[in-house]
Amino acid sequence: MRYIFLMLLSTFIINKAEAQIYEVGVFAGGSNFIGDVGATDYISPNQPAFGAIVKWNRSPRHSFRASVIFTDLKGLDVKSDDPRRKQRGYEFNTSIIEVSAGMEFTFLDFDLHKSGFKGTPYIYSGISLANHDNNYFTSAGQFTSENTSSWAVGIPMALGYKAKISHHLVLGAEIGARYTFSDELDGSVPDSVDREALSFGNTNNTDWYMFTGITLTYTFGRRPCYCNF
Predict the structure, then answer these.
(1) Which of 13, 56, 198, 227 is geometrically suited to a Cys-Cys bond with 223, CB 3.0 to 4.6 A?
(2) Does some domain include residue 210?
(3) Which pTM does this prediction carry?
(4) Residues 6+ apart with CB under 8 A from 218
């Protein structure tokens, strides 16, 4: 009985592996920053963002997902609704490379093996790492490089809608927030402890940034045995 059980289990695993489908594609859109410098609008892309995305659809309702996105984060105090920030007049611009991985869940079944229109809202979350240069503001308000870089750990949270637009193409649109555990992205907290006196802003709140854009992925992989080619 033990061997029969193992044989049945192996057959089940093999059939499930054959039923998986993969997606590779691109992300294009914009980004905006929310922190101690610049405006605090939640969805206000002001810099282009682009990257690559990979998905492993484990079922019609969930997928493992990974992405790499490049963008500049920019903040201008003159764009803020806070009169104190406008008077201060700080601005910053820093490039980041974000690597993210996690799970995507669909609200409806999204079986790419079935014919006809398929579309569904979805949510995504996981963990992200954003590489950025370290900077600080001098006492004169000049944005200055520390000539070092750091990784900001974050939690991505995205809401979107995707639809199959052809036999192998899926088009999606999403808005994603990244809550980071760092307060150094905008230079309000220098990375070097020797410049700790130059820190400013709300130390109880860490930095956020947003991605707003579209995804276009190509699907491939062996179909389940009960589907026609």
Answers:
(1) 227
(2) yes
(3) 0.85
(4) 23, 24, 25, 168, 169
Strands 143-164 and 208-220: unpaired
For the stretch 174-220, pLDDT in tens is: 999 999 999 999 999 999 999 999 999 998 899 999 999 999 999 99
Contact 143, 90 (CB under 8 A): yes
List pLDDT tens digits, range 75-130. 999 999 999 999 999 999 999 999 999 999 999 999 887 778 899 999 999 999 99
Task: Print the domain residue range for 165.
Answer: 2-220
| Alpha carbon distance 193, 153 (integer Å) | 20
Q: How many separate domains does the chain show?
A: 1
Instruction: Determine the Cα–Cα distance for residues 42 and 212; give it in Å rounded to an integer.
Output: 11
- Token digits of residue 83: 């009169």
Please report, for the domain that includes residue 128, its CATH number.
2.40.160.20
Q: Which of 211, 201, 199, 208 is nearest to 181 (CA)?
A: 208
pLDDT at 8 exceeding the cut of 60? no
- Burial code of 182-206, b = ≥16 C-beta within 10 A, e = fewer? bbbbbbbbbbeeebeebbebeeeeb
